[in-house]
Amino acid sequence: MRRTARGIAVLAAATLALSVAACGDGDKAAEEQPKVDPAALTAELTWWDTSDPQNEGPAFKELIAKFNQTYPNVKINYQSVPFGEAQNKFKTAAQAKTGAPDILRAEVAWVPEFASLGYLYALDGSELLSDSADFLETPLASNKYDGKTYGVPQVTDSLALMYNKELLSKAGVSAPPKTWAELKTASQAVKEKAGAEGVYLNPAGYFLLPFMYGEGGDLVDTEGKKIVVNSAQNAAGLKIAKDLIDSGAAAKPSANDSYGTMMTLFKEQKVAMIINGPWEVNNVKSAPDFGGLENLGIAPVPAGSARAGGPVGGHNYVIWSGMPQEKVDAAVAFVKFMSSAESQAFLSEKLGLLPTRSSAYQVDAVKNNAVVAAFQAVNEAAVGRPWIPEAGQFFGPLDQLATEVLIQKKDPQAALDAVAKKYKAEVVPGYGL
Fold first, then answer.
1. Between β-strands 148-149 and 144-145, what pairing exists: parallel, antiparallel or unpaired?
2. Do residues 165 and 332 make contact, with C-beta atoms less than 8 angstroms apart?
3. C-alpha 269: how far from chain center
4. What is the mean pLDDT of residues 408-419?
5. pLDDT for 345 beyond 70
6. Second label for 397, Cα 20 to 30 Å away, from 146, 361, 406, 418?
7. What is the mean pLDDT of residues 246-274?
8. Cβ-Cβ contacts under 8 Å for 334 (sequence gap 6 or more)
9. What is the pTM of this model?
10. What angle do CA 76, 77, 83 make, to 5 degrees?
């Protein structure tokens, strides 16, 4: 049975009430509380930040310092937790009711899962959602489960084609490729004329989705309760990715730390094109050998025979339901500050991240940001993911598939059939094949 924490949180200076329900008791009505001076709010909170500790972490630490200018007595214990470990680490701690962070930066697909397990506060009725119309619809939707809202969007993103303008120009490629066939041609031209690899494909499940989506495929049909990951469309998409590598148009991916290898080669101008997201813009910008943002091109991922689009991604702020009640008001204050339009504009200017509030796009630093403008076109083409509790478990099997197909040369259809059986056995057993 789904559990939510009982209690009311009142935020200093804003009277923020968290509407939460005890299991089986229904929602407990919030009572009016007097406003309190922010300086009088005292608490110690732990925040697990799952962003890149080198490229993004310093900017989040700057925001914490800004927060403490208004809330000097709320101590934030900032902990950088590797993204790949955070999902299971949080579930283990929350289940044990000890060691979980008060606040978590959660990937969008994790929120429905954590909410279904009773690990998150429901925020309905709180001041955190009083201006929910300002949040973009798709990022906000990832925080909903069973009619309630369990988080607020921090950042939204999707995968794009990121390219080296100088290398494409040397190869005689005047515009970024719009189809996978054009990408193959451009990649071969880069190898022949610019002395670099044309494209590097990261062999990970998330990064294969643009190829699957491009042929009209998907992972599951939530309305029909059916597993469709092993469709002919997905097999066709994987064959396109596999052909890029087998033909030599794409660099042979590394079996170890392929993502890190991809980024190193791109920053050192040894590969002209990659598929990646806005979280790496600051990393590329600061690379001494790349040439700054002036040399960075950003475009929607190339299209297959059906469409062009990467997966909708991003992160949300969530609050652990097992937190001591006396700390909740401070946690709400912190999340409200971090998810504000001002904070989002700050992160956009510093890191090139995409805000999730409409009002943030009206701030000059965001409005005039070329990177943000480029990624807006990318996000408009993004394909929505299923916001079901099991969605965060789709990628383990997909990562194994990516290694098998792109590195070990396994047949795409056979690999997809194995993933479908794993989904049926371990992820969505109630879905049909």
1. antiparallel
2. no
3. 26
4. 97
5. yes
6. 146
7. 96
8. 45, 47, 67, 71, 74, 76, 103
9. 0.84
10. 115
